[in-house]
C-alpha cells in the first residue's frame, strides 16, 4: 500500500497530472486547512473562505491534466487563493457599482413614460459589454445568441471543436455576469436575444 502522506509535493503533482485520485486527496488533506486559513485572513468571512478553497480544489481536479508537476505546488495553490480573492474583490466592486447605478436609475423616475428610454439605455449597456468581449468570443457568442446557431453549426463554420464553442460561450456569459452585475445580468438573460 502506498503511503501518500510520505510523498513530496512534486511526486503528488506528477500523480495528480496522471489522474491519481489518492494523490489528489493527499494534496487536499495537506493544503486545505492552510489555504482556508490564508483565505480567511484575506476575506474575514468563513463561508466565503470555505467556498473559495472548495472552488480551488474543484478546479484543480477538473484541470488536473493541465497541471505542470514541475511547478511548486504550494506556491501554485496559494497563488490561486490570491487570484480568486482579487477576482472576488473586483466582482464585488463591479456588482456594487451596477446595483447602485440601477438604484439611482430607478430612483430618477417612477413614471412609466420613460420606459422606452430605460430599455434603450439597458440595451446600449448590454451591447457595450458584448462589444468589449474578445473578438473570437464575441463572434461565437453572437452566432449562438443572435443567429440561433447550434454549437455544432458554429463549430463547423469556424473549424473549431464544439467544446471550444461551449467554453467560449460559457466564458462570455461569465464575463457578462461580472461586468453587468447581478440585476442587469438577470434582465439580460430574460430579455436579450
Overview of this protein structure:
The protein is an all-alpha fold and 193 residues long. It folds into two domains: 4-87, Rna Polymerase Sigma Factor, Chain: A, CATH 1.10.1740; 112-191, Winged helix-like DNA-binding domain superfamily/Winged helix DNA-binding domain (Arc Repressor Mutant, subunit A), CATH 1.10.10. 78% of the residues lie in helices and 0% in strands. The protein is built from eight helices and no strands. The protein has helices at residues 9-17, 21-43, 46-62, 73-108, 115-131, 135-145, 151-158, 162-191. Helix 4 packs parallel to helix 8 (162-191). The protein is flat.
Q: What do the pLDDT scores average to?
A: 83
Count of distinct strands: 0
Distance between the termini: 57 Å
Going by CATH, the architecture of the largest domain would be Orthogonal Bundle
Looking at the structure, the CATH topology of the largest domain is Rna Polymerase Sigma Factor, Chain: A
How many helical elements?
8
Per CATH, the superfamily of the largest domain is RNA polymerase sigma factor, region 2, helix turn helix motif
Number of domains: 2
Percentage of residues in strands: under 5%
The biggest beta sheet is recorded as: none
Amino acid at each position: 500500500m502506498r503511503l501518500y502522506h510520505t510523498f513530496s509535493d512534486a511526486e503528488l503533482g506528477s500523480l495528480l497530472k496522471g489522474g491519481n485520485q489518492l494523490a489528489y486527496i493527499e494534496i487536499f488533506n495537506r493544503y486545505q486547512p492552510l489555504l482556508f486559513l490564508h483565505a480567511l485572513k484575506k476575506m474575514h468571512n468563513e463561508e466565503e473562505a470555505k467556498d473559495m478553497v472548495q472552488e480551488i480544489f474543484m478546479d484543480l481536479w477538473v484541470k488536473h491534466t493541465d497541471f505542470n508537476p514541475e511547478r511548486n505546488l504550494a506556491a501554485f495553490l496559494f497563488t490561486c487563493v490570491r487570484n480568486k480573492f482579487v477576482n472576488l474583490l473586483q466582482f464585488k466592486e463591479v456588482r456594487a457599482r451596477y446595483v447602485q447605478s440601477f438604484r439611482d436609475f430607478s430612483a430618477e423616475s417612477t413614471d412609466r413614460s420613460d420606459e422606452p428610454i430605460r430599455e434603450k439605455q439597458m440595451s446600449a449597456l448590454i451591447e457595450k459589454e458584448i462589444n468589449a468581449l474578445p473578438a473570437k468570443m464575441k463572434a461565437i457568442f453572437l452566432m449562438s445568441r443572435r443567429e440561433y446557431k447550434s454549437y455544432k453549426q458554429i463549430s463547423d463554420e469556424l473549424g473549431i471543436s464544439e467544446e471550444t464553442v461551449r467554453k467560449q460561450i460559457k466564458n462570455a456569459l461569465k464575463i457578462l455576469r461580472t461586468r453587468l452585475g447581478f440585476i442587469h445580468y438577470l434582465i439580460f438573460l430574460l430579455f436579450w436575444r
